[in-house]
Amino acid sequence: MKKNERIPLSPCLRRFKFFFDLLKKTTDNYLFFADIQENIVMVSPNLVQDFDLPGEIMQDFDAYWAPLIHPEERSTYLASIRGLMKTQTIFEHNMEYRVKTRQGDYVWIRCRGRVGNDRDGTPSMFAGMMSRMAQRNQADEVTGLLNKYQFEHAVKLALNQYRATGEGGAIMVFGLDNFKIVNETYNRVVGDLVLKRVAELIGNVLPAPLTLFKLDGDQFAVIYPEAAEQEVAEIFASVQSALSRPQDINGHQYFCTASCGTVFYPTAGKDYLVLHKHAEAAMDIAKREGKNRSVLFSKDQYNRWVRSISMRDSLWDSVENGCMGFSLFFQPQISAEDQKLIGAEALLRWKNPKGRMVAPMEFIPILEETKLIIPVGKWVFEEALKVCKKWRHVVPEFQISVNMSYEQVKDLSFKEFVTECLARYDMPVDAVILELTESKIVADWSFVNRQFDSFRSQGIAIAMDDFGTGYSSLASLKYLSCDIVKIDREFVKKILENDFDRKLVQYVVALCHSIGIKCCIEGVEEEAEYELLTKECKADSIQGYLFGHPESVENFEEKFLHMEKH
Ligand code: C2E
Ligand code: CA
Ligand code: CA
Fold first, then answer.
1. Residues with CB in 5 Å of ion ligand 2
2. Residues 121 and 161 grouped into a single domain
3. Is 364 in the pocket of ligand 1 (CB under 6 A)?
4. Is the Cβ atom of 525 under 6 angstroms away from ligand 1?
5. Domain containing 33: what range?
6. Total structural domains in the chain?
7. Interior angle at CA 428, CA 427 and CA 434, nearest 5
8. Which of 370, 404, 408, 522 to mutate to test the pocket of ligand 1 (most atoms within 8 A of CB)?
9. pLDDT-based confidence at 438, cuts 50/70/90?
10. 137 in any annotated domain
11. Helix (H) or strand (E) holding 439
């Protein structure tokens, strides 16, 4: 059909033309009316204008329309139309798709139409309207990438593809690490530049057929049909290496690493919302596990994540209610030489709102992450100090060890609080020992050391906890100045059978002694271990189940201080 060529109206269309002409003046939407038997379509002039169609009356409309539809949606569109024309059971067409305008851009439209049947039941008319979807037309303003609406659409298409062919694939959601800090430290303009740069860097390393989408905030996504774990790992590795160099952004040097969560469809879900939620959760887990890494969604991990979210809320409530639900247990520490009680370590306990005791390994990382450890840590210190004051009436030199996370070291108000608290309870500085427990120290040794020095210059002893695990190793002994090293149970476990482990403990203790550091050995459970650790390894003090489990204040007093129960 040539442009403006006149196609005669079919009798059916002629009947309705009067109404059609009236209606098209009342709306900005596109209207259409089709005679199915004659395969002639009448459309409103705005459709002709916007999409450069040959005329308002067209024979075989889809020969013009289908080529304008985005290739990703075209086959779904044609299948839907064919279904309508052939069957006598489907009446409604309702679909969103992209169509190329006269200017050559794709715009999203929503098309809704209904089929009317003849008296004998054969489909005869198809009428309806199309509207432009304003929100969907917006590409992401900052990066120019396809936005979250297109992502949603693409996921739905991928799921349709799976239904048609049985082929699944992967959805990867990337989140920038520490992006909030960029916005807070600089401003949104710099933040936007970072997003733009990251979009380019990731876009450059994606294999050709894959599209990068920009979701809300600092999130990006990729749909990878037919991918398995191997392909996902390869993509993440190339993204990681693309982001591994510092970027100069407006004169600021910035490391923009990313964490990634991946779901495989259909195993992790057959629905857009579920898949997106699970991929985001996996990404959040990747961030919590230390950032700059990739996590594949698993149901178990997801359930744990959901639990930790609800635990976070309960912990907030506890803290807001004056640390309600928290309590301290105390584990005795004895002198290795004569087995005399010299002190105790204060260990935090928490009962959730249902009254269940939650293990410290579960709730302490959440306190650290939310920085709630700062108020809770102060509460711990004060409670422990009160108890110590009382117990010093029985054992005058009693020393209380209080755990301190890296987050607390970073918070400068903690040091002031410690000084003020000691003064308020009229306690000498040698009544407390602060143990640095954090196992994931990432930053700045020299800063930690300065903090340590300022505690030590006041006379407060610092212990390095869990020696032999995580941050706490020979290297940290070299960089951090401390008074006591607590050797972890990992070392103690095998000293009875293993000559090497025994020698190792012996040499570590000797090394510490040579530079004036005392050694406390943790996790001593057996008499034979104790014998060896004191006689051969020359430990200074011991803490372990052999001499006592962590106990409540009352039980500790009764068992180890022989005080009357009241
Ligand atoms: P940690 O500081 O290394 O505390 C010693 C842990 O070892 C305690 O576990 C204690 O019950 C356990 N333990 C002691 N003796 C033995 C033994 O002979 N055998 C075995 N198998 N285990 C023994 P708990 O109470 O579950 O505390 C776990 C961790 O939670 C602590 O490890 C510490 O890192 C953290 N934590 C506890 N209270 C606080 C606190 O107030 N603040 C901070 N920041 N962390 C705390
Ligand atoms: Ca400790
Ligand atoms: Ca420890």
1. 403, 435, 465
2. no
3. yes
4. yes
5. 11-132
6. 3
7. 95
8. 522
9. low
10. no
11. none
Q: Which atom of ligand 1 is nearest to the CA of 439?
A: 34
Backbone angles phi and psi of 323, in degrees to 5: 60, 35
Residue 140 lies in a domain: no
Q: Coil, strand, or helix at residue 123?
A: strand
Mutational test site, ligand 1, from 357, 362, 364, max ligand atoms within 8 Å of CB? 364
Beta bridge mates, 33? 42, 127
Q: State which of 347, 414, 466 you would mutate to test the pocket of ligand 1, scoring each by most atoms of that ligand within 8 A of its C-beta.
A: 347
pTM of the predicted structure, to 2 decimals: 0.66
Tens-place pLDDT, residues 160-209 = 999 999 999 999 999 999 888 787 778 888 889 999 999 999 999 999 88
Instruction: Report the nearest-CA residue for atom 30 of ligand 1.
Output: 360
Ligand 3 centroid distance, CA of 220 (Å): 40
Token pair 């030489």 in the structure block, residue: 337
Confidence at 391, pLDDT banded by 50, 70, 90: very high
Q: What are phi and psi of 241, to 5 degrees?
A: -75, -30
Q: Fill in the DSSP letter of residue 93.
A: E
Domain of 389, CATH number, reads 3.20.20.450
- pLDDT single digits (tens) 463-515: 999 888 766 678 788 888 899 999 999 888 889 998 998 999 999 999 999 99
The finding on whether 405 has its CB within 6 A of some atom of ligand 1 is yes
CA-wise closest residue to 128 among 210, 52, 43, 55: 43
| Cα–ligand 3 centroid distance for 518 (angstroms) | 15
